[in-house]
Amino acid sequence: MNGDGLGSPPWGPADPVPDLNDTQAIPGLGSVPGPNAGAGNDGGDGAPNPADGADGTEDPAEAGQRAKGGKRRRRRSFWRELPVLVVIALALALVIKSFAIQAFFIPSGSMQNTLAVNDRILINKIVYHLRSIHRGDIVVFDGSTSWDSGSAPTSRGVFGKVVDELEGIVGISNDPHIYIKRVIGLPGDHVACCNAAGQVTVNGVPLSEGSYLYPGNHPSDQSFSITVPAGSLWVMGDHRAISYDSRGHTGDPGGGSIPESAVLGRAFVIIWPPSQWGFLNIPATFEQPQLNNSNAAAGGSRAALEATLDNGTPVTPAASPLPLALGFVGAVPLTWLQRKARRRLKSRRERRS
């Protein structure tokens, strides 16, 4: 030990002092760089990058090339993800169209002035799973099992049904068996026309229909009297003079009434043209409490009526581009989320490696 109490160095007086710029190997950890290692933009070897400027900044040309490469990668990523976006959009459109809402085009004047020719409406397919069908509802239904029972379309098989679904999404198909009318009588109701004042009556209660009938039309120019069968509905158009409705189908199955199970949904809003925008509410005359109180007295069983009103309604395809648009609206955020999740997973894998 030296006199200063610091001890002797670990090398002899004749041994050279180690150069501080040398590296020292540590087992299992690789080499520890010397003091000059990592200085500047040299990748750790002390030598400057030839592509960088004299002051160590990145060359603008190289930065531009890297930016272009990033844009190309994003472009390629978009085209790779576009098919995924389309598939998700189609799947969402099928779900929306089959179980939620669907748009329809009004081709005739049988519901004027409530619905004009060329109006576009939306129907709600969920509502009748939450409540029963009400008098005064405007419903869209499939007449192939009642009014058009003799001309029902033959089955096209699974492939044909798939094609019909896809055509309906983009607005190509046009089912001639789909109708739109207003519900006048429910199961068990006695519907008749006309009383001394020329009005349609339901269970003996007259309906005041002036708010929705086509101007100048009588409630009916044709006399009728029917008790609506269980599970069925009596429906009529608002333009009574030209509407071929339940009154004209008394010789068909159901005596002119339609099955509740054939109802596709309730028309609830006009979406086109803008001058016709508005909700389709139930007229006040159908809110008369006497209509329900006299149902059983008119020959309908209240228990049977409530049981039939709880039935669900099936769905069928029809022409409408709206579900596809809504499908794309829902597919964009889903595609963005899966892309973000994929990037995070890739980043984690890179950090681990």
Written account of the structure:
The chain has 353 residues and is an alpha+beta fold. It has two domains: 72-99 and 321-353, no CATH class; 106-319, Umud Fragment, subunit A (Ribbon). Helices cover 29% and strands 17% of the residues. The protein has helices at residues 60-99, 127-130, 157-169, 289-293, 302-309, 322-352, and strands at 24-26, 30-32, 101-105, 120-124, 138-142, 178-185, 190-193, 200-202, 205-206, 224-227, 232-236, 258-259, 263-272, 278-279. Helix 1 (60-99) crosses helix 6 (322-352). The two termini are 50 Å apart. The model is unreliable at 28-32, 34-46 and 296-320 (pLDDT under 50).
The dominant shape is elongated
How helical, in percent, are the residues?
25-40%
CATH superfamily descriptor of the largest domain = Umud Fragment, subunit A
In total, how many domains does the architecture comprise?
2
Distance between the termini: 50 Å
What would the CATH topology of the largest domain be? Umud Fragment, subunit A
Please tag this protein with its features.
single chain, 353 residues, alpha+beta, Umud Fragment, subunit A, 2 domains, eight-stranded antiparallel sheet, four-stranded antiparallel sheet, 6 helices, 14 strands
Task: Please sum up the structure shown.
The longest helix has 40 residues, at 60-99. The protein has 353 residues and is an alpha+beta fold. The protein has helices at residues 60-99, 127-130, 157-169, 289-293, 302-309, 322-352; strands spanning 24-26, 30-32, 101-105, 120-124, 138-142, 178-185, 190-193, 200-202, 205-206, 224-227, 232-236, 258-259, 263-272, 278-279.
